[in-house]
Design a protein that fits this description.
Layout lengths: L6 E2 L2 E2 L3 E6 L2 E6 L2 E3 L5 E3 L3 E6 L3 E6 L4 H16 L13 H12 L1
Antiparallel strand pairs: 1-2, 3-4, 5-6, 7-8
Helix pairs in contact: 1-2
Length: 106
């Protein structure tokens, strides 16, 4: 088996992984996108939302690139909107963070 290039039924797959170590959290993601046999490109699948001194949120995306880009764009727009009562920076807990991301997916 080829452990450097995982596959599902012979097809290449992409990945996003987060793990907790004694030293802290580690996040990994590839940048491969596939829009068809001849349309392989790269796109960053890891987005960091940080408010220094308050919080760091890491969003790892996989799957449909258009949906991933749309979700990240909507989440960034919410951060800049003063009337936004529910944003990643206004969330009081991880449940509210998950609601922000879920609402952006819908």
């Amino acid at each position: 088996p080829n452990i450097l290039r995982p596959s599902f039924q012979g097809l290449p797959v992409t990945y996003c992984v987060g793990t907790l170590l004694e030293e802290g959290l580690v996040f990994l993601s590839d940048s491969r996108t596939n829009a068809g046999v001849d349309a392989i490109s790269t796109f960053r699948k890891m987005t960091v939302f940080e408010r220094p001194g308050d919080r760091v949120l890491v969003l790892l995306t996989a799957g449909n690139l258009a949906i991933s880009q749309s979700v990240v764009s909507l989440l960034r727009e919410q951060l800049d909107a003063p009337e936004s009562h529910l944003s990643l920076y206004a969330a009081q807990n991880m449940y509210e963070v998950a609601r922000c991301v879920g609402d952006a997916v819908r």
